[in-house]
Design brief:
Length: 351
């Protein structure tokens, strides 16, 4: 959700839901030795030569290990620069809570994802990548969709385990509200949430074949709408999408990743809205969604930023006008100087 805001009048706080991905450039991913990609096993750091000094392949040439440490340091500097830029772009008052949703530009695509990048993200934004945020009786389910490949990788197993637990908690909350104060045996020890279906927020959209059915001024260009999406890259797989729908039965799904807007109805009852990119880097007309949400209903408004082409046109027009004014001013000054010189010359001749 690129900019949904729900007022919380009880605590004079509001909820601002944002997604980091595609707001920040995708820098080359660098992994630490003990943090291999999600699909691989954890590796081991090679020992250094001698008494722990750096390994050198030739005199005057840094070893692969030192070059690698330099790349890691540069990657960390890029990450810190991006985080600072993000906070500058989305600076907010103290009565607004910032909630950030993880995407592939934060922890890499699935084959790039590792524990180091995931924990770095969670540490910076002080929150787990998969969790439920509850405000004024509304459950917002934040899903780490990068880890839903279903290939049994360690991070995928951890995320799926957490999703199963959250699904159980939500279902038990619904059952508990229907059965009164009596807690069912199968729900013993579960955490109770407001008994309402969640609003699901995730970076990758649920499975759809293409954007052929998408319309609107923020939809993909007509020539791109019939391009087939790749499962686990452009959209989630069919299996992962069906599991999420069966586990949570969300009343609304908000997603991103494709840079274009789209509205889809899954199984004729689960609406999904893909929010277009918020950045001029990805589209000419970026936008965000302003949401007003209650436990029983929601209303969405799409807010467009100025088009990049319009801003560039205004700058060019303003520059051209300034240039014309400067030229006119120079011509006027030149005429004034000529007039003064003639007047002075006439007076000199009369003397």
């Amino acid at each position: 959700m690129d900019g949904g805001r729900a007022a919380d009048s009880a605590g004079r706080r509001s909820l601002l839901l944002l997604r980091v991905s595609h707001l920040l450039p995708h820098h080359p991913q660098v992994r630490l030795a003990e943090d291999q990609p999600c699909t691989g096993r954890r590796g081991h750091r090679r020992p250094a030569d001698g008494l722990g000094g750096p390994r050198h392949s030739a005199v005057g040439h840094p070893s692969p290990g030192s070059r690698r440490r330099t790349l890691v340091r540069q990657a960390e500097e890029h990450w810190e620069d991006d985080v600072r830029r993000f906070h500058r772009m989305f600076r907010h008052s103290t009565d607004t809570e910032l909630v950030v949703l993880v995407g592939n530009h934060d922890i890499g695509f699935h084959y790039e994802m590792d524990w180091f990048k995931l924990q770095r993200f969670e540490k910076v934004f002080n929150a787990s990548s998969t969790r439920i945020v509850t405000k004024k009786g509304v459950n917002f389910l934040l899903v780490n969709s990068v880890a839903l490949h279903g290939d049994g990788c360690p991070i995928c197993q951890s995320v799926e385990k957490e999703l199963i637990k959250l699904s159980r908690d939500l279902n038990c909350s619904l059952q508990n509200s229907q059965s009164g104060s009596r807690v069912m045996d199968s729900c013993e020890g579960s955490q109770l949430y407001p008994p309402t279906p969640p609003i699901m927020l995730q970076h990758y959209p649920l499975f759809r074949v293409s954007d052929a059915g998408c319309t609107g001024q923020d939809a993909a260009p007509p020539e791109d709408r019939h391009l087939l999406f790749r499962e686990k890259y452009d959209v989630l797989s069919k299996e992962a999408s069906q599991r999420l729908l069966q586990w949570f039965k969300p009343r609304l799904i908000l997603s991103g990743h494709t840079h274009s807007g789209c509205e889809v109805l899954h199984d004729n009852k689960y609406p999904e809205i893909s929010v277009p990119s918020f950045s001029w880097r990805n589209r000419n007309n970026p936008s965000f969604i302003l949401a007003s949400v209650s436990p029983g209903s929601y209303a969405l408004s799409k807010c467009f930023l100025p088009e990049e082409s319009t801003v560039i046109g205004v700058y060019c027009s303003a520059g051209a006008c300034l240039l014309l004014l400067l030229l006119a001013h120079c011509l006027w000054m030149k005429g004034l100087l000529q007039c003064l010189s003639l007047c002075l010359l006439g007076k000199h001749k009369s003397l």
